[in-house]
Amino acid sequence: MMDDKTSAGIRPMTFQEAVEGWAEEREKLRYVQAYTARRSRQKALLFEPWIGDKAIDEVAPAEILLALSELGTSGGRLKEGLSSATLRAAHLAASQACEWAVGQGRAQGNPFTKVKRPKANYRQSRFLTQREATELATKVARNAEAYMMLDDVRHASFCLAVCIALATGLRRGEVFALKWDDVDGDRLRVGVSKAVKADGSVGNPKSIAGVRSVAIGKKLMKLLGKAEEWHSEILPADRPAGCARLIVCDETGGRASMNAFEHWWRSWADRNGFVGLRFHELRHTHATLLISNGVDVKTVQMRLGHSSAVVTMSCYAHAIPLSDGAAAETLDAALFD
What we know:
Blueprint: H1 4-7, H2 15-28, H3 34-44, H4 48-51, H5 61-74, H6 84-103, H7 130-149, H8 153-168, H9 172-177, E1 183-184, E2 189-192, E3 195-196, E4 202-203, E5 212-215, H10 218-234, H11 258-271, H12 280-292, H13 297-304, H14 309-316, H15 320-335
Antiparallel strand pairs: 1-2, 2-5, 3-4
Helix pairs in contact: 2-3, 2-6, 3-6, 7-8, 8-10, 8-12, 13-14
């Protein structure tokens, strides 16, 4: 006997079709950035070898569990297994694609709701103390000036990227998208409106709140002013299209490779006493130092480009005890002889 879908002329949707349709709609209707839609599609399609050509309603929970198990033990390019965070992201994306198919009337239910989402064991983010951050900023700023003396554009740019990230909390992609026109020397502010994605494309920041203006200090502004003047003297006037006046650039004035930067950063950090420090942890350091020095969470939220103060608090609640201790000492000194 034919079921309602078949008799109505609606063919049940396979898992792969659901993923493709879901990702395409998200990108075309701009629910998310194009890069984000493609990344989610890639994550969901990790299940393709096991259930890709199956109708969603025919997918058994045991098949999803088998896929997760094998992806966790032998998945990835090196066949060494995917991380728990990747498995969790894959489950989430696949589940959302199936829910989309249900909403389209092309599936009765979502089989991923019957399989518990893997728990992600995220690495604890590290942040520097005030002393460590000052030491890092001093060293990298001196390196930037030394590289300028040697007319080494690439490495001077890399050092500037570190200075900017530590002083503003900008994400790596946001730093790499900055142009000199984004720096307002009179108002001591940096405008953030674009971000370089992992695939090299340039788009909007991670969220709407990511479009923002961030205040900077006079010392950083002095360093940036010197670098801009140096760029104008040493870089060719006919720079690559779309790359004119980039702050972080290569010898031609074109966009510097983020992969090359990551290799340089890991080496520089290890050599200078910051072993294993990830570049993104400069952002964590920036936020932690602000909160522990009494800056209100709303200001920190706006500087980081978070969508809400709730997001900021969930990321940096660890800094509150530090701030609370400083507040207690201040009040204690004011109240008692």
